[in-house]
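#struct-help
A.M.: can someone run this one for me? Single chain, 280 residues.
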Amino acid sequence: MALNITKSQKNTPLLTHQGYSYNFDVDGVDKKIWRCVLRKSRNCLGRVHTDADITTVISESKNHNHTPNSADCEKRELLANLKSTGKASTESTGGIVATAIEGLPVAVLGKLPPLASMKRTVQRARQETIQGALKNVSSRSELILPESFTKLKTGEQFLKFDSGNNNQRILIFSTLDNLAQLSSSKHWYADGTFKTSPSLFEQFFVIHGSLGEHVLPLVYILTPNRTRSTYDRALEAFASAFPASRQRVCFFFISHNASGARFNNCQTSCTNIPLLQTSP
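D.P.: on it. Structure tokens below:
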């Protein structure tokens, strides 16, 4: 039976055994050598030898200068699992943290960092995944999105449109539920931002809908530039991504008429005139 192995905060192998935590040290002959995580901070000489497959403890040094602490071990495991879950799951950061801490003993809860810190751990793990997917990609035409970026955990396609592997590439992300909410919204707001746009794209464009007292982001569009022709292409792509809908008015053209050529941080409200009307 395999021993309990996770990853440390520095992304190195971490072994927990009988209330102690060990960092991987070196490979021996047909074995692996692990040293107590408090080796540097408390000069602890505790050590464990496992077989090469990390299934069995071959020998164990009892030279710890501190007592075993299962709560500390569980805390380290939880923080390591937050990172791995953050990379693999599409659940919200708050949801991942809430699931991880549910049912934990009070002794473990008391050792955990603040909730905001644990959420940042999840966010950083996701950012590492994104950076890995974009590593060595220098142009939009080279970008290949992994499935985890294009589908929800339910299996629904989140990437609704991809104009193809070219430098004028446009990507549209949304869900069928978001479209339904957008169709029932009395007011639509279109807003583009540049600071949060991925480096390969010039603008991150978002369509919001008003639902009751709230305004929610419902459609996300990445564009290569801010020219009028690109906005026209984005509109055509938006329509093609939702073939069950038909256009009645175009907020893009409203914005063009108001600004002359491009959005440039505009905000457009379409009052009582839905952009899409679901066909019966």
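A.M.: thanks! The chain is about 30% helix and 25% strand.
D.P.: also worth noting: The two ends are 58 Å apart (CA to CA).
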